[in-house]
Amino acid sequence: MERTIKCACDKIIAIFIGDPKLRTICHCRDCRKANGGDDFQDLMFCNINQIKVVVPRDQLIEVPASEYKDECPRYFCKDCNTFIYGDVSQKDGRPMALIGPMSVLTPTLPNMKPSLHMYIQDKVMPALPNDGLPRVESLSKSPYGKELMSKL
Ligand SMILES: [Zn+2]
Ligand SMILES: [Zn+2]
Question: Which one of 44, 109, 113, 143 has the largest count of C-beta atoms within 10 Å of its C-beta?
């Protein structure tokens, strides 16, 4: 299945192929910064090859890896600043990417609920919601990280 990745100004930035592999609520500083200062980011993980950018590269702002603790460059719409994706593969060669919130995907995935809260030690929300989701300090050190790797 193909979906479009649209930014807030309604441009089709990329085509997304298949389904994301994992959806999480991330509380880390990098995600909060990428999300324009919100308290958390609704984030999805996928294989980098599932994202085909269809706009000319100069329509995207690349914020370099050096700006983020997780050392992944992130890409934003030049006009509305919507976070589109982060390229994990440029960090360590794993074919992984982060994509922005569910709202960027059209059509969305109504049945794909977040699986966990992560980087809870960095949270700025006074309290996490009572949603029953597991809470981990990092994805890679949790069983969810291993599971994700096996799906990429
Ligand atoms: Zn994060
Ligand atoms: Zn835009």
Answer: 44
pTM for the structure as a whole: 0.93
> For residue 60, which ligand has an atom nearest its CA?
2
Domains, the chain, ordered by start: 2-150 (3.90.1590.10)
Phi/psi class of residue 78: alpha, beta or left (left: φ > 0; alpha: ψ in -120 to 50)? alpha
Ligand nearest to the CA of residue 29, numbered in listed order: 1
CB atoms within 10 A of CB 79: 12
Alpha-carbon torsion (138, 66, 59, 1), positive or negative: negative
CB neighbourhood size of 113 (10 A):
10
**C-alpha of residue 81 to centroid of ligand 1, in Å:** 17
